[in-house]
Amino acid sequence: MTHNAAILVIEDEEILRDIILNVLQEKGYQAIGTGDSRRGLLLAKELVPDLILCDIRMPKLDGYEVLKALRQDSKTRTIPFIFISAEKSQVVRNRGQQCGANGYLAKPFTTDELLKVIANHINFYQ
Question: Is residue 1 part of a domain?
């Protein structure tokens, strides 16, 4: 199944990032990843992907800062943005929503949960 949707994964845990990228590529998504939040921001502005998956806790810029910068740029403002994080508190989810996140996926998550959240947001925003 080919989706042709481009997904940017910004995740500093290399093993998790590689797993996500492999799953997405196997399902036919065009997936690119980085462990560097500043590079992720540059890639988002350069590639304008169909969806972004981003960890919250990262060195340099955290996920909230990445999202804020993307929402301030007319080119990236409307890209669906899903936080992925081990933080499970409602406070974290609420802060993500207030910053403009479209969704939240709590670590650890299953492949099915990952694919479902992606499909829901890509189909909704296309």
Answer: no
Count of the separate structural domains present in the chain: 1
Residues pairing with 105 in the sheet? 84
pLDDT at residue 18 is higher than 50:
yes
Domain CATH for 101 = 3.40.50.2300
pTM comes to: 0.92
Query: How many Cα atoms occupy the beta-carbon half-sphere of 55 within 13 Å?
Result: 23
DSSP 53-72: EEESS-SSS-HHHHHHHHHT
8-state DSSP, 88: -
Within a domain: residue 46? yes
Domain that holds residue 108: 6-125
Q: Which of 2-6, 52-56, 82-86 has the lowest mean pLDDT?
A: 2-6
Name the amino acid, one letter, at 69.
A
